[in-house]
């Protein structure tokens, strides 16, 4: 049974949250504000469940925070240099909301609005819908947008879709921060990560891709064999110093083999203490791992928990950042009437 709950108000309009339950203790809570995942309860090797995503207890806290916790991000997730791109011979300027660059759809992206919701008890799913107007944040074409969460046996499936009225660029991203020990457990740096990728995309001091695609061989970006997330932090260069002074850790795109249907493996994560294991698969050609280097203890999350630096990591399956400008990267162009579709599958087990 899918249960709806009050979740506060956004400028006087009520927001809601829904709880979905799967098998073996797996459950989620989602809200219509930003079509976002607010809770993900997963059992450990002893059958004890914990909420393994960062977030807040009410919609007002999501409105006040710029963290994108659990959100459906669009129209363009990740970054576009100077917010400029050319499409079919025409130049466009979209919102620049991170220094000189565009990030995650702009100041009024799809994460910062209330969506409509349709519940399907039979499939144990909920679909959120919104409409994006032509010219919104500078993007061409109107879009009808959907984001679906479906719970299956020990699996969470997320499907993001959009249909534009004219040619545009689309790169929808799901932006949960995960901590497999539980959202209130502190740093994730001792959790183990595997990324089955031979190549990654280096970034400059503004976190923009340099345009290169480099091998992970003999680098600190080689996660092909599972290892602790923080094992090589001491050897990493400073990260994004022109955007966030004091930044460190990872905020990079890894290139996946293939892309599009069928699903391809993007990541595997293990928390040795609890035994929780998560495997992520996707239709997309890239995955952005961000290790929460800009989180801090002034962010007060669920249950009045102060989140620390590295309290969670993201795994954002995607096209590559700055793809509209770097034409050798996978295209983000979607033509009028075509359907953009991005599917993620999170599978949970224990060790």
UniProtKB/TrEMBL annotation:
Mention one GO biological process in which this protein takes part, according to its record.
galactose catabolic process via UDP-galactose, Leloir pathway
Pathway entry: Carbohydrate metabolism; hexose metabolism
Q: Does the keyword Aminoacyl-tRNA synthetase apply?
A: no
Q: Which InterPro entries match?
A: Aldose_1-epimerase, Aldose_1/G6P_1-epimerase, Gal_mutarotase_sf_dom, Galactose_mutarotase-like, GH-type_carb-bd
Q: Which CDD domains match?
A: galactose_mutarotase_like
Keyword entries, A-Z? Carbohydrate metabolism, Isomerase
One GO molecular function term of this record is:
carbohydrate binding
Gene3D superfamilies for the chain: 2.70.98.10
Record family assignment? Belongs to the aldose epimerase family.
What's this protein's name? Unannotated protein
